[in-house]
Amino acid sequence: QVQLVESGGGLVQAGGSLRLSCAASGRTFSNYAMGWFRQAPGKARELVAHVNCCGGSINYADSVKGRFTISRDNAKNTVYLQMNSLKPEDTALYYCNVEIGGRVYWGQGTQVTVSS
C-alpha cells in the first residue's frame, strides 16, 4: 500500500531554516509527480512546491519563491523541501503528496511553527 511519511518539522525563529523529508513506500515512485502542500488554521490547503518525475518541471508558490527548494531522490523514494529565511506566515501543517493517475495520496503532515 502507498504510504507517505513526513519528517523534519519543528519550531524555529524567523530567518531560520528547516529541511522537510517525505519518505514514500509501497511502490516505486520514480514515474510520478510529487509535491508539498501546507495548511494553516482557518485557511485552505495550498500548493507550496511541485516536481515532476524527472525533476525537469518544478513550480513554487509565489510566497516561497527564492526561499524554498524542492528536490527528489528517486533511488530513495524521497522528496525534500529545503526552507530558508522562514517567516511567521510560513507556520502551517505541511503535507507531501504523490499523484498516481487521477488519484492523490497524502502523508500525515509535519508541523512547522515560525516564531517572530
What features would you highlight for this structure?
about 120 residues; mainly beta; seven-stranded mixed beta sheet; four-stranded antiparallel beta sheet; about 55% strand
Q: How would you describe what is shown here?
A:
Helices cover 0% and strands 54% of the residues. The protein is globular and about 40 Å long. Strands 2, 4, 5, 6, 9, 10 and 11 form a 7-stranded mixed β-sheet that branches. Strands 1-3-8-7 form a 4-stranded antiparallel β-sheet, with no helix packed on it. With 116 residues, the protein is mainly beta.
Strands, helices and their partners?
Elements: E1 3-7, E2 10-13, E3 18-25, E4 34-39, E5 46-51, E6 58-60, E7 68-73, E8 78-83, E9 92-100, E10 103-106, E11 110-115
Parallel strand pairs: 2-11
Antiparallel strand pairs: 1-3, 3-8, 4-5, 4-9, 5-6, 7-8, 9-10, 9-11
Shape: globular
Task: Give the CA-CA distance, first to last residue.
Answer: 40 Å
Find the structural class using helix and strand composition: mainly beta
Number of helices: 0
At a glance:
This protein has 116 residues and is an all-beta fold. The chain has strands at 3-7, 10-13, 18-25, 34-39, 46-51, 58-60, 68-73, 78-83, 92-100, 103-106, 110-115.
